[in-house]
Design brief:
This protein has four helices and eleven strands, in the order H-H-E-H-E-E-E-E-E-E-E-H-E-E-E. It is of the alpha/beta class and 192 residues long. A hairpin with a 5-residue loop joins strand 4 and strand 5.
């Protein structure tokens, strides 16, 4: 299927999902991510923050879990530079001030947060709506993460978080699409 069709289908699947189902899936994703991270020594993790009132993977819950399990790990989050398709990245501390952008996504306040360069990041939690068995993803269509991931080190691990399993194939992949290294779902960890 093509990205536009998949975007529409998976947005609807999330919208139709029962609230308790979403809570359970989020908890299972967090547990699977924690199991994966226990086998690693990442120093800086970058996470997207969920759009307010959306039904995205609840990364605030994941971030709190990571702070407890990996207190030495630095956690960063994106800030979209207004009027551009570019992002800057800032440390996300427990007391960080957040601002809400025009898409209703909380972001670290760039005036009060410490900057993090893309090359400092060891692992990125990538937002998505759907992904295929080769590790390609369907995002929201802005290309922000594909641009950002192209700036990270070649050994930076790109991890999708999905409430749903892989589809067979996204048919309109282009040269700007960046492949994930793995995708964590409630039921398993896909490695590509």
């Amino acid at each position: 299927m093509k990205k536009a069709e998949l975007r529409k289908e998976f947005l609807q699947k999330r919208e139709d999902a029962d609230g308790l189902w979403l809570i359970e899936k989020n908890a299972l994703i967090a547990q699977n991510l924690e199991k994966y991270l226990l086998k690693s020594t990442f120093k800086t993790l970058h996470s997207f923050l969920p759009q307010l009132t959306s039904r995205e993977v609840h990364t605030f819950y994941i971030i709190e879990l990571l702070r407890i399990t990996f207190p030495e790990m630095r956690i960063a989050a994106p800030y979209i530079i207004p009027g551009t398709k570019e992002m800057k990245h800032f440390l996300l501390a427990p007391d960080s001030e957040l601002v809400v952008n025009r898409w209703r996504i909380p972001e670290p306040d760039p005036n009060t947060s410490e900057s993090v360069l893309p090359e400092e990041i060891d692992i990125v939690l990538v937002p998505l709506l759907a992904f295929d068995r080769k590790g390609y993803r369907v995002g929201y269509g802005g290309g922000y993460y594909d641009r950002f991931l192209a700036q990270t080190r070649s050994d930076c691990i790109k991890v999708g978080l999905s409430m749903f399993d892989a589809i067979d194939q996204i048919t309109d992949i282009d040269e700007f699409d960046i492949q994930l290294d793995l995708c964590i779902t409630p039921d398993q960890i896909y490695k590509f």
